[in-house]
């Protein structure tokens, strides 16, 4: 059923190889807020992520391991899904209020203080990959 939903929503794009396919071509990020098709949403991880088969299996394995043992900590298990350049650029959509922006900035500072990841706030949509925080689904 998941494969059927994927093929209907992604027009024949091969199932389970998203990261490999995405790394082969330029990716354009829209500045408009998108919506999620209600038929696909039950199959999304955390509401907006379509996992590859390997990612789903890795998550299930981690959940099924003995809960008394500490799991190996890893930011990402799929090396092709990692950001290629740092700092990671991000921007705020006009739909976000000041309080939410301050909370996001506090979280970003925490990540920078706790990890080797760095972020850069940009006012306009940059070329290449970036994160856009917006109010709404996803």
TrEMBL record:
<dbReference type="InterPro" id="IPR024079">
    <property type="entry name" value="MetalloPept_cat_dom_sf"/>
</dbReference>
<protein>
    <recommendedName>
        <fullName>Peptidase M12A domain-containing protein</fullName>
    </recommendedName>
</protein>
<dbReference type="Pfam" id="PF01400">
    <property type="entry name" value="Astacin"/>
</dbReference>
<dbReference type="GO" id="GO:0006508">
    <property type="term" value="P:proteolysis"/>
</dbReference>
<dbReference type="InterPro" id="IPR001506">
    <property type="entry name" value="Peptidase_M12A"/>
</dbReference>
<feature type="domain" description="Peptidase M12A">
    <location>
        <begin position="74"/>
        <end position="138"/>
    </location>
</feature>
<dbReference type="GO" id="GO:0004222">
    <property type="term" value="F:metalloendopeptidase activity"/>
</dbReference>
